[in-house]
Design a protein that fits this description.
This protein is α+β, with helices and mostly antiparallel strands. It has helices spanning about 40-55, 65-75, 75-80, 85-100, 120, 125-145; strands at about 10-15, 20-30, 60, 105-110. The longest helix has 21 residues, at about 125-145.
Length: about 150
């Protein structure tokens, strides 16, 4: 095993306001078992943390398509005990329901492509470019959280 097998996972979320990226939160992924040290769990944890702070109306962008797909499949699918990270999904769904998601709350979750080159980012429209830069910043802070 290399040292990265024992490395901590970091998580982060940021806001993009008026073209400026601002830090939301970041930190180390809380785990109680080594098997929980997974990037997918860190992505879901970051989403949960954002949901604790962001109120509708809101648009949340994530580079983890599993979050968008999971939300589309619904609460029962996400929180099934056989599902990886069902415990975090339960916290996510509690937040979503508490904020009225699915009952008319104006909350949208969109996928944003990760790890674009500088040239690819420059070719994007302004709005998409801001989200790509925001994603890069979230990745940067997630790495700080892991450290």
């Amino acid at each position: 095993m290399g040292h990265t097998d024992w490395a901590q996972c970091g998580w982060a979320w940021v806001t993009v306001s008026g073209g400026t990226v601002r830090v939301g939160q970041y930190g180390a992924l809380p785990i109680s078992l080594p098997a929980q040290r997974r990037i997918k769990r860190a992505e879901l944890w970051a989403f949960h943390q954002a949901m604790c702070c962001v109120l509708p109306p809101a648009v949340i962008h994530t580079d983890h398509s599993g979050i968008v797909q999971g939300l589309a499949k619904g609460k029962h699918w996400c929180t099934d005990g056989r599902r990886a990270h069902a415990d975090v999904w339960r916290m996510v769904w509690w937040q979503l329901e508490d904020q009225g998601y699915g009952e008319g709350a104006d909350l949208e979750v969109r996928h944003v492509k990760a790890h674009r080159s500088k040239a690819q980012k420059q070719a994007l429209q302004d709005d998409a470019r801001r989200h790509a830069v925001g994603n890069d910043e979230a990745d940067h802070f997630a790495k700080l959280g892991a450290d």
